[in-house]
Amino acid sequence: MRGSVKAGELWTHEVASSFNPEAEAVIAHGDCLEILRALPDSFAKLIITSPPYNVGKVYEKATKLTQYLASINPVVDELVRVISPEGSLCWQVGNYVENGEVF
User: Fold this and answer.
1) How big, in percent rounded to 5, are the helix, strand and coil portions of the chain?
2) Over the chain (103 residues), what is each successive 10-residue block's mean pLDDT?
3) What is the pLDDT of residue 66?
4) Could you tell me the pTM of the whole model?
5) DSSP 3-state assignment of 103?
6) Which long-range contacts (CB under 8 A, 24 or more apart) does 34-37 make?
7) What is d(CA 93, CA 49) in angstroms, rounded to the nearest whole number?
């Protein structure tokens, strides 16, 4: 069984009814921070995410590394809270280069 939940639906249903614990996979569409905050502690055994790369592509505006990290830190905090102790996190981002230094 697979499920898909939009962020707005999380507020009309309790998390337990929106996410079937027996589901093989859940795909959530919406603001990731809102969705993560609605999930209980240690909920996920696997999280796959591809946050903004912050490399100045056409569809995004590059910001200073400190600004980028400040914007992504609340998400990281929620990921740490939501991932189970035996869980895994797959984080896909590109290289970030600032003043010739690669991060």
Assistant:
1) 35, 30, 40
2) 50 52 72 87 89 72 84 94 95 79 77
3) 87
4) 0.66
5) coil
6) 34/7, 34/10, 35/5, 35/7, 35/10, 36/75, 36/78, 36/79, 36/81, 36/82, 37/78
7) 9
